[in-house]
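Project channel, design review

CF: Before we commit to the Streptomyces buecherae constructs, I'd like one complete example in the thread so the newer folks can see what an input/output pair looks like. Taking NDP-sugar synthase.
RD: sounds good, go ahead.
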Amino acid sequence: MTEAILLVGGKGTRLRPLTVHTPKPMVPAAGVPFLAHQLARARAAGVEHVVLATSYLAEVFEPYFGDGSQLGLHLEYVTEREPLGTGGAIRNVASRLRSGPNDPVLIFNGDILTGLDINSLVETHQRTGADVSLHLTRVSDPRAYGLVPTDATGRVTAFLEKPQTPEEIVTDQINAGAYVFNRSVIDSIPTGRPVSVERETFPGLLTAGAHLQGLVDSTYWLDLGTPQAFVRGSADLVLGRAPSPALPGRRGDRLVLDGAQVAEDAKLTGGTVIGADARIGAGARVEGSTVLAGAVVGEGARVRDSLIGAGARIGARTILDGAVIGDGASVGADNELRDGMRVWCDVAIPTGAVRFSSDQ
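CF: and here is what came back for NDP-sugar synthase:
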């Protein structure tokens, strides 16, 4: 396996305000853009050439990663001018691939954090002679996902839409967002229009009699599509629950990046990340949270399972619990934001403007 495609063109709508100024794969997770973790794991698996299928804020990627040489990779960038869907994005970069028709190409979705054994997926693909192989994972409640049942040999038998009744839940296996395609299959995807691999390409291949193989790997898997999931994924990387060669420091309860200032009596726990040049005030408590570069957390503040954007300011004694604060926003002292509340970029909340009563 020498090359891969990374699908990094999504707008990250569910992650706003984190993605107002930053494409989803470039939002920092455990101290570096999430994409850095994916690229590092691909390289560790032997991948040498990666084509990034970009679209939203496409101009951000290349200035950061360049040609990939510092990562031991050769990176190329292809930008969609109009949204093409997952299948269309894969087909759109085909001209940059070096593989022959029967060679395998690894494909990743740009918002999945996983402990998948990449080499095992490739080996399964080659051993079974599949046209496409899919990473499948098991979830306790599959109602929010499309189901992918397989036979006793692991061969995919169907692609089922999100189940609506208990009788429709015939498996707990779902598409986990990593694939191996034979190059010839990529070349067969229609050009010039949007195509969904999940809704069109995979079912169409199955109908045509192609061999689609599933590999169930239920180690670590998390869709980082929501702010809460993104914060959790970052913490899991720091804690060592999710693997990555790109972590810029030791695994543990906290990760404090260069230039950050943390008061001696501040307490950082639960995989918290403090970004470069951020400041954490005296007596503050930050648990399982991400504080991005240049942000300020005031004295005595309490921050739990939250994300504080770059340059944002959190006032003294303010409580954040499951909140998201956009870049450059300001939350004054003595506020209380909980349960998924989001503050947009550059918004200012005055002192004591948001409070919860004691019986809530």
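RD: helpful, thanks. The chain has two domains: 2-223, 253-349.
CF: The chain has seven helices and 28 strands.
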